[in-house]
Write a structure and sequence with these properties.
Helix content is 31%, strand content 22%. By secondary structure, it is of the alpha/beta class. The chain has 2 domains: 15-154 and 354-369, Rossmann fold; 156-344 and 372-410, Dihydrodipicolinate Reductase, domain 2.
């Protein structure tokens, strides 16, 4: 079996970034330090903030969070603390910001940062709705900002190699891609996680809700578990689907599916969450069917991300990929050889952050540019909309709307709670 080394890959790979943007408010030279702020210093924020700070050209300036204990973790030393992200964006010397808030708070800080002349690293999924993603893309282009989506798998050398192999026909024609995520979350989280229902004095609940509908404080909706509520996120579809469906779409070199069909719901987990614990989605691309299988009630491992080619099968995860050859009927030997390449998820994350920082200076578009993040998030949103409606939907990618389905089109955006506006 052929083993591909990192050194061999480095000699053959080409730069993933393309395109240029116009000049910024403060032009960065190759050796300049980047003044950085972070908006949202909870779980995900504190996973990536230390990686940014290890980069030799990063200068931390300010941090923002609505929960004081989280804010204190990020705002150390000379880092200025803020509870309102708008105050952070007013700091002129900041060159770029990280947006690592819950999903319903991705759009406004990103758009307002672009308007303030700052570049943005926004965690995935890029948006809560298709309409948000479109506005984020428009803001980035209008203000000539570098906006990287936190889809770090795109920066993994083995993911880049796998996509290149697939696009060059290395496993034959690919007409089926299988993606999914499974775990056993039974019986749910609420009774295990909630210690008190009293609103902590350290938390600004109104600001945490922001543009989302007002509800009484519920600690189950905060922190990691916001993902299971439609007002703030989209379940495992926008959590893990945003990673694996992103790679599938990238390998297909496709903007969007032609149609989507889905079924599922929260059938067994009774903890107050809303997003599916069982979900099956089919995407119809031109010449390829992509499936997503989500399961929260049984951890038996299904296929995580598999490309089924006519000459072989490529199975990929964050620790690497393997190619198993196919033997055609009436042939004694397969047309391709077995192949594998190791990967490192931690390395991919660092490379992704480094790609963003380098693009701030080169003004190239990053490997997970805002447009790619928008297209992948849209794919996830389509799957969730079809699941909630329980029917097949046709998609017009140029207009970014469903064909002849008013009810489905109404779900492409959501009203914002005053005084917040999506502009």
């Amino acid at each position: 079996m052929k083993q591909i080394t990192r050194r061999e890959f480095a000699k053959t790979t080409v730069a993933a970034s393309a395109g240029t943007a116009l000049s910024r408010m403060r032009i960065l030279g190759a050796n300049d330090r980047i003044n950085l702020g972070i908006i949202g210093s909870g779980d995900r924020g504190m996973q990536i903030w230390p990686i940014f700070l290890k980069q030799p050209d990063v200068n931390p300036v300010a941090a923002c969070d609505v929960y004081e204990p989280y804010l204190a973790r990020a705002a150390k030393g000379a880092v200025k603390p803020h509870k309102d992200f708008r105050r952070l964006l007013e700091i002129k010397e900041i060159d770029a910001v990280i947006v690592a808030t819950p999903d319903h708070w991705h759009a406004l800080p990103t758009i307002m940062a672009c308007q303030a002349g700052k570049d943005v690293y926004c965690e995935k999924p890029l948006s809560l709705t298709v309409a948000e993603g479109r506005k984020m893309l428009e803001a980035a282009r209008k203000h000539n900002r570098v906006v990287q989506t936190g889809s770090q798998q795109r920066s993994g050398p083995h993911y880049q190699k796998a996509v290149k192999l697939i696009q060059q026909g290395g496993i034959g024609a690919v007409h089926k891609i299988t993606a999914g995520f499974t775990r056993n979350a039974m019986p749910g989280f609420k009774h295990e996680e909630i210690l008190t229902k009293e609103l902590p004095k350290e938390l600004d609940w109104e600001m945490w809700l922001g543009p989302a509908p007002h509800v009484p404080y519920d600690p189950f909706r905060c922190h990691y578990h916001f993902r299971w509520f439609w007002d703030y996120s989209g379940g495992q579809m926008t959590n893990w689907g945003a990673h694996n469906l992103d790679i599938a779409r990238w390998a297909l070199n496709a903007r969007a599916p032609l149609a989507v069909s889905a079924f599922g719901g929260r059938y067994e987990i009774k903890d107050g969450g809303e997003t599916p614990d069982i979900q099956e989605v089919l995407y119809n691309f031109d010449g390829c069917v992509v499936s997503w299988s989500g399961r929260e009630v049984n951890r038996t491992r299904d296929e995580y991300l598999v490309f089924h080619g006519t000459k072989g099968t490529l199975n990929i995860m964050r620790n690497g990929f393997m190619i198993a050859p196919e033997t055609w009927r009436k042939k004694e030997k397969p047309e391709i050889e077995p192949m594998q390449m190791k990967g490192n998820g931690n390395e991919a994350q660092t490379l992704h952050i480094r790609n963003f920082l380098d693009c701030l200076k080169s003004r190239q578009r990053p490997i997970a540019d805002v447009e790619e993040g928008h297209l992948t998030a849209t794919m996830c949103h389509l799957g969730n909309i079809a699941t909630r409606l329980g029917r097949s939907l046709k998609w017009d990618a140029a207009k970014e709307e469903f064909v002849g389905d008013k009810e489905a089109n109404q779900m492409l955006s959501r009203p914002y709670r005053k005084p917040w506006k999506l502009e």
